[in-house]
Amino acid sequence: QCPGIEPLCLDVADWEEAEAAVGAAGPFELLVNNAAVAELQPFLAVTRQALRRSLDVNFEAVLHVSQIVARQMIAQGVPGAIVNVSSQASQRALRDHAVYCSTKSALDMLSKVMAMELGPHKIRVNTVNPTVVMTDMGRINWSDPQKSAAMINRIPLGKFAEVDDVVNSILFLLSDKSAMTTGSSLMVDGGFLVS
Questions:
Q1: Identified catalytic residue from 22, 62, 72, 100
Q2: Which GO BP terms apply (predicted)?
Q3: Taking Cα atoms as reference points, which of 181, 187, 184, 143 lies closest to residue 161?
Q4: What is the per-residue pLDDT for 75?
Q5: Closest CA to 57 of 91, 33, 81
Q6: Taking the C-alpha atoms of 128, 131, 132 and 135 in order, what is their torsion angle to the nearest 10 degrees?
Q7: Reported pTM
Q8: Which of 161, 174, 182, 185 could cross-link 124 (Cys pair, CB 3.0–4.6 Å)?
């Protein structure tokens, strides 16, 4: 459906595998970092394994893959755009989300630093910060009606996001229609953060 787009299937948390696969691909003009894990545990029960895996995927992989792609963009002398998929959880504390909230908050700040440092190379970097999205992961973590009702009641639009809501926001940030937008976070949260 999308000519010119070739997905790569790899463990982005494996630096050597990512270096080989992403380094051999390209040339790049656009990048979307969308891989994430959500291992939900109460703060007092957070395990080192959950913390390590979340940091590896939600933060370190974004940094590393973005480095590989941005270096190629700079070497080619082409402008580019990077969109990192973050979360409303980067800006609002959620029960049992200590690690997830923290890694997404770190991703927001990483994106701002990337925007500042890559801007002179004509590479824009932004985040989209959705509410719960009805992906497989979203359904697993929010299938309990009691838990989901509490969240939906805090969303003025009264619903969780669909995949297309996020995709359309990403497409906007990748496009020339957002040519003066960098270092920004686009909330796709149905108003959650204003409630």
A1: 100
A2: glucose metabolic process; xylulose metabolic process
A3: 187
A4: 96
A5: 33
A6: -30
A7: 0.94
A8: 182
**Which structure tokens are listed for 159?**
């619903």
Below-50 pLDDT ranges, the chain: none
Q: Which fold has domain 15-188?
A: Rossmann fold (3.40.50)
Q: How many CB atoms lie within 10 A of CB 102?
A: 19
In this prediction, residue 133 carries a pLDDT of: 94
Q: Tell me which long-range contacts 110-118 makes (C-beta under 8 A, separation of at least 24).
A: 110/59, 110/62, 110/63, 110/84, 111/82, 111/84, 111/86, 111/183, 111/185, 112/183, 114/66, 114/70, 114/82, 115/182, 115/183, 116/183, 118/70, 118/82
Asked if 100 is an active-site residue, the reply is yes
Angle between helices 98-118 and 61-76 (to 10 degrees): 10
CA distance 195 to 191: 7
Task: Write out pLDDT tens, residues 104-121.
Answer: 999 999 999 999 999 999
